[in-house]
UniProtKB/TrEMBL annotation:
Occurrences of domain Thymidylate kinase-like (ranges): 166-345
Superkingdom of source: Eukaryota
Name of the featured protein: UMP-CMP kinase 2, mitochondrial
PANTHER family in alphabetical order: THYMIDYLATE KINASE (PTHR10344), UMP-CMP KINASE 2, MITOCHONDRIAL (PTHR10344:SF4)
One Gene Ontology biological process: dUDP biosynthetic process
Source organism (scientific name): Phasianus colchicus (Common pheasant)
Length: 357
């Protein structure tokens, strides 16, 4: 079948009078990353058919569910291409989503830890997969994540080398120290979300909590298979892992001060049973003033969540307190306020003390 034509908007097709009606209308606007559009046009040049007309959400041209369903093979082909696998097989057609499943998606009520956070945090691989499957109709990138997730082996066993995770609020120095530790130990450095899915992060960051968290949770399971493989060859250093997913979820889903967090020993602070465990988790903390200085010095663009983190000191406190309440493995707190060299020395000592190195 010839490849579809893709238009960013109807005006791109030139003179409206001369163009034929689109054969398929798709709901493209929210899922195609802007940086992908030029590549898309190059890959699917003008003149090929059928025409796919990108429509706006809620506009007069908003496709009916039937149009949307018709467009899936094309969308998946495109997403597959954007994922760097244009020559690979297209994604399998999603199974039809029934009304009840849609309602469940909106409620976000798939399995997770008990209690009010159940909706927000899918804490087992099947729950993560289910939640992604539930939104694949609307977000084809969820299908891409699922595809990668499904290729990961079910049982992920750590190799003989130690796995050390670094956690902490933004700008506490994780990137800086993980790079130094990697160099010093000849380690492999991995991060969450893993590189193979991080291009879709901006899409999921705009989604409601259950979907956003399912993306990060899926990232952890994909990361686990990378850790399993790498730890057979060398020590593995990981910049954020499950504790980040859990702590940010808990803090987002609660309000006010830390007294409103789920109590100590609540199931939300537990490590998922089916997720590969690290040997050591180091939680970097700095004073709010020092963190603000480092953020300022770095001057990067911020996500909505990062902006909230900056503006809302209670939010920051809830995140750090949630990190502290995590168990098995618990976080070992490291004061990361001293100089980069001193923090590096402290961290290296802790790794040598706790891990067989
Ligand atoms: N010990 C330190 N003393 C002073 N500045 C530091 C120290 N460690 C890191 N920095 C600086 O603080 C800024 C943030 O550090 P870094 O990017 O390593 O943090 P991060 O925890 O990885 O942030 P994020 O989670 O947002 O990626 C950088 O400009 C870095 O050079
Ligand atoms: C891994 C991970 C990240 N996040 C969110 C939390 C922060 O807002 C940013 C930090 O990411 P950075 O790459 O370290 O700057 O991402 C999250 O909510 N859940 C996660 O699992």
């Amino acid at each position: 079948m010839p490849f579809p034509r893709v238009y960013r908007r109807s005006s791109e097709r030139g003179d409206r009078k001369q163009i034929k009606k689109p054969s398929v209308s798709i709901f493209f606007s929210l899922s195609l990353p802007p940086q992908a559009r030029p590549a898309c046009k190059e890959r699917f040049p003008a003149g090929s058919a059928p025409v796919i007309h990108r429509t706006r959400r809620g506009g007069a041209e908003n496709p009916s569910p039937r149009d949307t369903a018709l467009s899936f093979p094309h969308r998946h082909e495109l997403v597959s291409f954007l994922a760097g696998s244009a020559t690979a097989r297209p994604f399998p057609r999603p199974t039809p989503v029934r009304q009840r499943q849609r309602a469940a998606m909106l409620r976000g009520c798939t399995a997770g830890p008990p209690g009010p956070l159940r909706r927000a945090l899918p804490a087992a691989a099947p729950a993560v997969r289910l939640r992604l499957r539930e939104c694949v109709v609307r977000i084809p990138e969820a299908g891409a994540v699922l595809d990668i997730l499904e290729k990961c082996p079910e049982s992920q066993r750590k190799g003989e080398f130690p796995v050390v995770v670094f956690e902490g609020l933004d700008a506490t120095g994780k990137t800086t120290v993980t790079q130094s530790v990697k160099d010093a130990l000849g380690a492999v450095l991995l991060r969450s979300p893993p590189a193979c899915i991080s291009q879709w992060r901006t899409i999921f960051d705009e989604e409601p909590t259950p979907i956003r968290r399912a993306f990060y949770a899926a990232g952890n399971y994909i990361l686990a298979s990378e850790i399993a493989k790498a730890s057979t060859q060398a020590p593995v250093i990981v910049d954020r892992y499950w504790h980040s997913t859990a702590a940010y979820t808990i803090a987002t889903e609660t309000d006010g001060n830390i007294q409103n967090l789920p109590p100590d020993h609540d199931a939300v602070y537990k490590w998922p049973e089916d997720l590969l465990k690290p040997d050591l988790v180091l939680l970097l903390t700095v004073s709010p003033e020092e963190r603000a200085r480092r953020l300022e010095g770095r001057g990067l663009e911020r996500t909505k969540e990062e902006a909230e983190l900056e503006a809302n000191s209670l939010f920051r406190q809830r995140i750090e307190e949630s990190y502290r309440r995590m168990v098995n493995p618990a976080c070992q707190e490291v004061d990361a306020s001293p100089s980069k060299e001193e923090v590096f020395k402290t961290v290296l000592q802790l790794i040598k003390k706790h891990c067989a190195l």
